[in-house]
Amino acid sequence: MSSALARGVWDALNTRLQLNKAAETVWPVLAANWHLGFTAFGGPSVHFQIFRKRFVEDKHWIDDQIYQELFGICQATPGPGSTKMLFSINALHSGWLAGTLAFLIWSLPGALGMYGLSLGLARIDELLPGPVYAFLTGLNAATVGIIALAAVQLAEKAVTDRLTRGVVLVGGCAGTLYTALWYFPALMVGAGLATLGWDLRVLQRSGELERRGLGRRAGTEPEGLEGV
């Protein structure tokens, strides 16, 4: 009888500890993400800037280097980039359950809102009233401005060298001039190969300079570098 009672007390304590741990995980996720599904307008380019401001600069959940790596991976893989980004940030900070919770907090408001709008649009005439068109026109113009501002702010952090500027310029022009299902993956692969070749050449050059400096300090030139 005493062993059964002790086992019951132990199970109750374990359950309480697990609930406390879950609450410690869930509450920060809720506090950090609860409003994003209602306030993050403007599309992925704006979302990325919002996430950087909130999770890198304000909360310090991840550093800027990890953010840049996640940004590249989320943009290069299929699917909604900002949704993948939010899931990854929360999963890295608090585990995959926190990432799943953040995904639901992020996605459900928009899904429910779009469902409600679809029901409303199905019940109106083909032509919307004039004030509605005027409102939508102003909303679209404001959205373009927000996207442009977010793109400039994000570029100031991500585009920091000549090679990256060249890749962005060439990729943007090429993507504007032609579109196809195979074209954008080909552009990404080409940009990746160009960056890899550039980095390897820079590393080799820096290695040669380092060896030359060591040879000069030792009073001799490394083999193969005489006369360079």
Automatic annotation (TrEMBL):
Location in or out of the cell: Cell membrane
GO molecular-function terms, A-Z: chromate transmembrane transporter activity
InterPro entries: Chromate_transpt
Membrane topology annotation: Multi-pass membrane protein
Keyword tags: Cell membrane, Membrane, Transmembrane, Transmembrane helix
One term under GO cellular component: plasma membrane
Matches recorded under PANTHER family: CHROMATE ION TRANSPORTER (EUROFUNG)
Protein name: Chromate transporter
Lineage of source species: Eukaryota, Fungi, Dikarya, Ascomycota, Pezizomycotina
